[in-house]
Amino acid sequence: MSSNEHIVIVGGGIIGCATAYYLSQMGWTNITLIERHEIAGSSSGKAGGFLGRNWSDHRLSGPLSRKSFELHKNLAHTLPHEVDYRTLQTYAVRYSSETKSRKQSSKIPWIKKGYDSIKLLGSESSTAQVHPRKLTKALIDVAMRSGNVSLLLKTVSGIQLDGVTVKGVICGEEIISADKVVFSMGPWSNKLGIWLKEAKYLSGLGGGHRCHSIVLDTKDCNISNIAIFGELETKEYEFYPRPDETIYVCGEDDNEPIPDDPKNVSIDMQKIDTLKKITQEMITSLSESEPQSAQACYIPSSPDSEPIIGPLEEYNGIYVAMGFTVWGILNGPGAGLSLAEMITEKELTIPEVQKLSFQRFKNMV
Predict the structure, then answer these.
(1) Helix (H, G, I), strand (E, B) or coil at 145
(2) Strands, E, within the chain: which ranges?
């Protein structure tokens, strides 16, 4: 394959931007990334950025997660941008209305008294964090500065084919020609089932569920680099202190239908108020000020809760990455590297990623 062949990437989240980054690092010179909204405008800009090295060891994606955890550390040292990467300790903390404990935790002194239990989930060798938006934008910035990658802000509405060979993508009345196309559209990957009818197993794949989050100022709270997976009554919440003296808090999922346009993702303010209340009840010295940001995004899904990565065998030149669930940020660099190696026909750094292909869904139709 010639390094001058035109590669089009559809989707400006972490996987699309990581694919562009690694392709440009490999010397590919004709890459176009198409994004309808903005870089990191959806889940990749609104996620928490928690990284777990061995948290997927029991899954098909375990080898991908381990390598991607390593790649995050490497990127933090090599990218010429601050991406707020750091290692963490991670704890599970359980509260209930029936708790009798009034002890203060010596492990996490900044949480309030009254917990039922505290359990270590990860050490600084196995858990870390990154700022997803900063990382995603850093990847595409470096790729574009290389001169190998261009960015188009357009809406892709279809795929141009010659038989089963890709020739480009359709953007309204315009066709962007391509020799190979990568689709990394997160929850909006469900559009592929409409565009590519020969791959019948694509019908029903894609989609996701909505999750709310807030970011609060913690500069007066003396909060350390400890991530918390909190259980309060029957609900679960996640708390990620960040190096910029803020804390990211998420939870309050629901099944609100996915809008056609990422710009139209709605926020349930009642759920935002719940997140504020829970955080103020749990963390000492936290002011009652309004969040710096309140947001919602859709977490991509797949039938077996495993990511889907690789070429579509029914077509020539089409590659897809979708269904990364809550581990999209963790697995983004590994997925981008793997796609770049598949496209350029290089030996795979993570050979086990081949088990994450569409092959496992073909008996569904």
Answers:
(1) helix
(2) 7-10, 31-35, 50-52, 86-87, 89-95, 115-122, 127-129, 149-153, 158-162, 165-171, 174-177, 180-183, 208-217, 226-232, 235-242, 246-254, 293-300, 308-311, 318-322
Q: pTM here?
A: 0.95
169-207 pLDDT tens trace = 999 999 999 999 999 999 999 899 889 877 777 877 888
Q: What pLDDT shows up at residue 94? A: 86
pLDDT tens digits, one per residue of 222-241: 888 999 999 887 789 999 99
pLDDT digits (tens, 9 = 90+) for 259-268: 999 999 999 9
Q: What is the largest CA-CA distance in the chain?
A: 69
Residue 106 has pLDDT above 80, yes or no: no
Q: What DSSP element (H or E) covers 338? A: helix 328-343
DSSP 3-state of 365: coil
Identify the burial level of 148 via C-beta atoms within 10 angstroms of its C-beta, where 0-12 means exposed, 13-18 middle and 19 or more buried. buried
CB 152 within 8 A of CB 33: yes
d(CA 88, CA 67): 18
Q: What are the tokens at 96?
A: 């209930």
User: Residue 163 CB: number of other CB atoms within 10 A?
Assistant: 8
Give the whole-angstrom CA distance, residue 322 versus residue 11.
Answer: 11
- Domains and their CATH numbers in the chain: 7-81+130-206+303-361 (3.50.50.60), 89-123+207-301 (3.30.9.10)
Contact indicator for 51, 129 with CB cutoff of 8 Å: yes
Encoded amino acid at 363, one letter: N
- Distance in angstroms (rounded) separating the CA atoms of residues 86 and 129: 6
Rounded CA separation 102/356 (Å): 47
